[in-house]
Amino acid sequence: MSEWWTYSLSDFLLFSPRTYYRLIELYNADVWPLHVVMATTGVGIVTVLGRDTRGSRFAAVALGVCWGWVAWAFHLERYAQINWAAPWFAAAFALQGVLLAAWGVFASEFAQQARSSRALALALLALSVVVAYPVLAPLAGRAWTSSESFGIVPDPTALATLALVLRARGAMRWLLAVVPLAWCATAAATLLAMESAQAYVVIGLALAALAFAMATRPAGPGPR
């Protein structure tokens, strides 16, 4: 029996990169033109989250719906075909969707957001993920049909959500960040196992969101 330290991440990969990206291609073809709806929704969420109570509540609920969709349409319906752990991922994504929706419906001080330049940086980070993340596929030499979009697949959804929830004030932002952070770690490990440089994009964006959030001082009560 080989010693445990002789194993690499790729030894634990349950599928080939070709299989994974082919799954995404077929998934994209099945759900198009939902990408346009999700991209528009993502831009809208970034725009209104933290602006006022009504807009913030809508944005949080919409974000929860995006997580619920990825849980069902991607993890359960597709990813489970090549990864036995996908149903567990689906459960985590569904839980995150419920937490986000509950945050939007029940939060009593929703409009209290950090207003610093660092909070703006987090919003811009989220916006860049929503708009630019699909471009990574052609930059990596893959077809546009294998692009990964916010609200459609997990990685950009988790990254944008992480940047957005870390703009919130108080302990709630860390509760809402647990699942996105866990997924970013899982996604980075999977991408490293597939020898994809995109892993470093996931790691870099997640660390940037954390750095900005930890440097942001809580703001006082916002407008009602």
General description of the model:
- There is one protein chain.
- By secondary structure, the protein is an all-alpha fold.
- The protein has one domain.
- It is 66% helix and 0% strand.
- It has 9 helices and no strands.
- Helix 7 runs parallel beside helix 9.
- It is globular and about 45 Å long.
- Residues 4-9, 110-114 and 218-224 have low confidence and may be disordered.
Helical coverage, percent range: 55-70%
Question: Quick one: biggest sheet?
Answer: none
How many helical elements? 9
Radius of gyration (CA) equals 18 Å
Mean of all residue-level pLDDT scores: 84
Strand content: under 5%
- The N- and C-terminal alpha carbons lie at a distance of 64 Å
Q: Count up the domains.
A: 1
Class by SSE composition: mainly alpha
Give a count of the beta strands, DSSP E runs of length 2 or more.
0
**H and E order:** HHHHHHHHH
- Globular, elongated, flat, extended or rod-shaped: what is the shape? globular
Q: Low-confidence parts lasting 5 or more residues at pLDDT below 50?
A: 4-9, 110-114, 218-224
